[in-house]
């Protein structure tokens, strides 16, 4: 019995060492990385708005295949709608950008950046502090992929869903039978370079 216990302990130690892996620092390539955003409605009219927004800067630290620390800063002035609802002369994309930039939503004049500060990881859940409109709450990025490449880059993908009400984004639709969802989704598709 003792021999089996020792073998089991050694196996766990070896697994722990393999899991720990190499410690690396990464800088996010802002030109090759993207963030997709999406928000929608319910009620009498169901539709969603979605588009892209750019990462201003960011750094990550990994240990093996785990993101341990990091900070991602998003440039709120780069919101671009891509849904069909805002590609017409009647409803140009600039209308939605202007509304999302206003105090009704993200008040970009006073809060030009949003950020996610990594605080830890459990499984595929990257925990951190999300700051929007200067308000910070703990949120989770569900990590879909961390794939290092031989050329010294890595692909990191994941998504974050947050409740806009927690960040004082409280605008209600002007049509009583249309309800603006409280949930906003961010989908990260990051290319990072080893520092």
What does this entry look like structurally?
The chain has helices at about 1-20, 95-100; strands at about 25-30, 35-45, 50-65, 65-80, 115-120, 125-130, 135-150, 155-165, 180, 185-195. It is mainly β and about 200 residues long. Strands 1, 2, 3, 4, 5, 6, 7, 8, 9 and 10 form a 10-stranded antiparallel sheet that branches. It contains 2 helices and 10 strands.
Which features does this protein show?
54% strand, elongated, 10-stranded antiparallel sheet, single chain, 14% helix, mainly beta, 10 strands, 195 residues, 2 helices
Biggest sheet layout: 10 strands, antiparallel
Shape: elongated
Low-confidence stretches: 7-19
Secondary-structure element string: HEEEEHEEEEEE
Determine Rg (CA atoms, Å). 20 Å
Helix percent band: 10-25%
Percent strand = over 45%
Structural class: mainly beta
End-to-end distance: 48 Å
Number of DSSP-assigned strands: 10
**Average pLDDT for all residues:** 85
Number of helices: 2
List the helices and strands and how they pair.
Layout: H1 2-20, E1 23-28, E2 34-43, E3 48-63, E4 66-81, H2 93-101, E5 113-122, E6 125-132, E7 135-148, E8 153-163, E9 178-180, E10 183-194
Antiparallel strand pairs: 1-3, 1-10, 2-3, 2-9, 2-10, 3-4, 4-5, 5-6, 6-7, 7-8, 8-10
């Amino acid at each position: 019995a003792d021999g089996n216990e020792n073998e089991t302990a050694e196996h766990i130690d070896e697994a722990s060492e393999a899991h720990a892996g190499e410690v690396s620092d990464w800088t996010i390539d802002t030109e090759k990385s993207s963030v997709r955003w999406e928000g929608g409605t319910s009620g009498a009219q169901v539709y969603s708005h979605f588009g892209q927004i750019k990462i201003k800067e960011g750094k990550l630290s990994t240990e093996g295949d785990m993101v341990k620390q990091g900070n991602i800063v998003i440039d709120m002035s780069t919101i671009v709608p891509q849904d069909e609802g805002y590609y017409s002369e009647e409803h140009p994309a600039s209308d939605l950008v202007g509304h999302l930039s206003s105090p009704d939503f993200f008040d970009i004049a006073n809060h030009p950046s949003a950020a996610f500060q990594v605080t830890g990881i459990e499984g595929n859940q990257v925990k951190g502090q999300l700051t929007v409109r200067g308000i910070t709450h703990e949120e989770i990025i569900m990590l879909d992929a961390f794939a290092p490449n031989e050329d010294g880059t890595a692909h990191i993908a994941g998504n974050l869903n947050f409740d806009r009400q927690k960040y004082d984004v409280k605008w209600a639709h002007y049509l009583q039978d249309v309800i603006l969802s409280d949930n906003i989704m961010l989908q990260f598709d990051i290319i990072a370079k080893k520092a």
